[in-house]
Design brief:
heterodimer; A: 401 residues; alpha+beta; 2 domains; 6-stranded mixed β-barrel; 51% helix; elongated; B: 228 residues; alpha/beta; Rossmann fold; 4-stranded antiparallel β-sheet; 7 helices; globular; binds adenosine-5'-triphosphate; binds magnesium ion
């Protein structure tokens, strides 16, 4: 690549400003499509992940299953497994584990819970519910109940409960009313409804009841242990590896949210593939556009190229002029396109603030540098063939001497 | 006074095509040129003038015979060697000027030197400027070809042919597109350059008036040299 090749490449571009501008805007358009797709696919993934992981625990710690082991796996023998139902699944010694869990890198919230099944009885209606007893101040650590309260308040006195809005509607319950709860241990107690929440998750809004930790202990006959420990981590995508670490440090069964949400990941994967295809098409468009424009330009300059060859220009010089010309069109067009896309995406709200119906476009996932690099590379590849063709032009034929 | 020959051609032939359609365009060409010579190449249309100039200019290979210039066997040299030889020792002027439309007159004159060096240098600029002075176009230095007359363009082309101080300038009907007055102007110029710079010229033409201004006439007829 000699300075003279650089000079001639720039001279060609500047001598035909209209044509150059048209070509570069074509490239710019392709690049903005590329960036827009990256930002949209990335934003969609972020939004769906946010929505999914926002209200669920990222890791759940429970007692390991006490399935009996088969001692003598004799082939052909019929084995009967009898599960031990004499003990309840509970984490008996949980307090010493809390500081260990809290110190684990990535963990941002830890919530020991008492869980159990119960019935709400109101007149002739009986509704099964899942009761969650949380410690004071930890109500909103997993699902943001405080923010989801639609009536009443989120405080949990000893005789207060919070219920989902669907359950409230089904049973015709309102804040301030008193209902009776019967636990699966056979204990009954009256509670005053302190608040109604809407999490937007059907199962939670229909079946969940939150109550005070100590009250739940009494209701479910758990004097010391807890049913499970729910954990939130950041970033949520690291849940699987953090769960593995917690499993080793606590000896408990650790289930990451990713295990229960395979469909989400498959969906996100499919989306990413679609995005990749669209991006690949925009690159192909750029390649085809530049290659055909370069071919045309070389046919038009046939005599010029011939005369340069006759006057001592090497094939290498001719190739470098045209490859550089194509690469410059790609690079400058890409910069323009990236800049335009950046400006266009600038006023859009961040994904976490997207209203329903709005497109979740995440500018930070626009892959700007990748778009510029790939486009420049594509433009270079696109101009190699035309350039080689230019270098093979026979001076005698081209000049018509 | 005898000068050493710069170029010798012996038994040179050029055939086009194969089999039935084969045409023998040049037949047994023998020719020598001395340094500083200015020769006219005459002959009817189709006699092979352009073909001979193209072969001498290393833009095309002969079918047979020998071609040596400045001690180099150009018949058997590689394509890269011929390209380098061409840029160092040969200048070209064609019937059509073939200037590069995106370059100014000065840049066009520098082009063959810049191609060889990979860059434009101050000394090239200086030399190109002198050549434009010599062809009487010092005031058209920064004009593009589109903004010049046919005669002016052809004079730029002559200046361009001289930028590398060629030993031999091959000119194929350089005045074929010009009116009498412009043609005379270009020929005056070639004459002056030939005398002051010592470059040899081989100029093909149909024009006796042009031929009369050269020291030597070489006549082609049907692919053979009938007088030289
Ligand atoms: N590429 C080619 N293939 C086949 N025949 C060719 C080719 N180039 C030239 N010829 C033939 O060679 C002969 C000589 O052509 P050339 O162009 O050298 O003539 P010329 O003397 O320059 O004629 P003019 O005065 O008209 O320019 C012609 O008969 C032409 O048809
Ligand atoms: Mg001819």
């Amino acid at each position: 690549m000699t300075p003279y090749a650089v000079k001639l490449a720039f001279r060609h571009l500047f001598s035909h400003p209209g044509q150059t501008a048209l070509l570069m805007s074509g490239v710019a358009l392709g690049v903005s499509v590329f960036i827009f797709m990256s930002a949209l696919i990335g934003g969609l993934a972020t939004l769906l992940t946010l929505r999914t992981v926002g209200s669920i625990p990222h890791i759940v710690l429970e007692m390991p299953d006490r399935d009996p082991a088969v001692l003598n796996a004799n082939p052909g023998a019929q084995v009967v497994l009898q599960k031990d139902l004499s003990r309840r699944d509970q984490i008996a010694i949980w307090q010493p584990m809390i500081p260990i869990i809290e110190k684990t890198a990535g963990v941002i919230a830890v919530s020991p819970q008492i869980r159990g099944s119960a019935f709400v009885v109101r007149g002739q209606a009986v509704s099964p519910v899942g009761v969650i007893g949380t410690m004071a101040g930890k109500l909103s650590d997993i699902a943001n109940i405080d923010a989801a309260i639609v009536a009443g308040s989120g405080s949990l006195p000893a005789d207060g409960i919070l219920i989902g809005s669907v359950l409230a509607r089904d049973l015709g319950l309102r804040v301030g009313q008193v209902v009776e709860l019967t636990s699966d241990r056979g204990r009954s107690r009256s509670f005053r409804i302190g608040g109604v929440f809407t999490l937007g998750i059907a199962s939670a809004d229909r079946q969940s009841i939150y109550m005070n930790f100590t009250t739940a202990r009494a209701l479910f006959d758990l004097t010391t242990g807890v049913s499970r420990i729910e954990i939130k981590v950041r970033p949520a995508t690291d849940a699987a590896s953090i769960a593995e670490r917690l499993r080793r440090s606590t000896g408990l069964k650790a289930t990451a949210w990713t295990e229960d949400n395979q469909q989400l990941f498959e969906g996100l994967d499919a989306q990413a593939r679609t995005g990749t295809i669209i991006k690949a098409f925009s690159l192909v468009t750029i390649i085809v556009g530049i290659a055909s424009a370069m071919l045309l330009s070389i046919v038009r300059r046939q005599a010029e190229i011939g005369i340069m060859r006759a006057m001592g220009a090497s094939r290498g010089l001719v190739i470098s002029i045209y490859v550089l010309e194509g690469t410059l069109i790609g690079f400058i067009g890409a910069i323009i396109g990236a800049l335009a896309a950046w400006l266009a995406l600038l006023p859009l709200p961040p994904v976490s603030a997207v209203q329903s119906g709005g497109l979740p476009i995440d500018q930070t996932q626009g892959d700007f540098l990748l778009a510029i690099a790939l486009t420049t590379l594509a433009a270079m590849l696109a101009s190699i063939l035309p350039a080689r063709r230019a270098a093979r032009i026979d001076p005698v034929e081209a000049i018509g001497a | 006074m005898t000068k050493a020959p710069i170029l010798t051609v012996t038994g040179l032939t050029k055939d086009f095509g194969e089999g039935d359609t084969q045409t023998h365009v040049l037949k047994d060409i023998n020719l020598a040129m001395e340094a500083g010579e200015m020769a006219a190449l005459l002959g009817p249309s189709g006699s092979g003038k352009s073909t001979l100039l193209t072969i001498l200019g290393t833009l095309m290979r002969a079918s047979g015979g020998a071609y040596d210039m400045l001690g180099v066997d150009l018949m058997h040299a590689s394509e890269a060697q011929r390209t380098e030889f061409r840029s160092q020792n040969l200048g070209f002027v064609f019937q059509f000027h073939h200037l590069l439309p995106d370059l100014s007159a000065l840049e066009n004159v520098m082009m063959p030197a810049a191609c060889a060096a990979g860059r434009e240098t101050a000394s090239m600029r200086q030399r190109a400027s002198e050549l434009l002075d010599a062809v009487g176009l010092s005031d058209r230095r920064d004009f593009r070809p589109a903004a010049m007359s046919g005669g002016q363009r052809q004079r730029v082309a002559v200046a361009r042919a001289l930028i590398n101080n060629p030993v031999l300038v091959l000119a194929d009907e350089p005045t074929g597109n010009l009116d009498r007055e412009s043609a005379d102007h270009v020929m005056d110029l070639v004459r002056t350059i030939n005398e002051t710079m010592g470059s040899s010229f081989l100029i093909s033409t149909h024009d006796e008036h042009i031929a009369a201004r050269c020291q030597r006439r070489i006549e082609l007829l049907d692919g053979r040299i009938v007088r030289s």
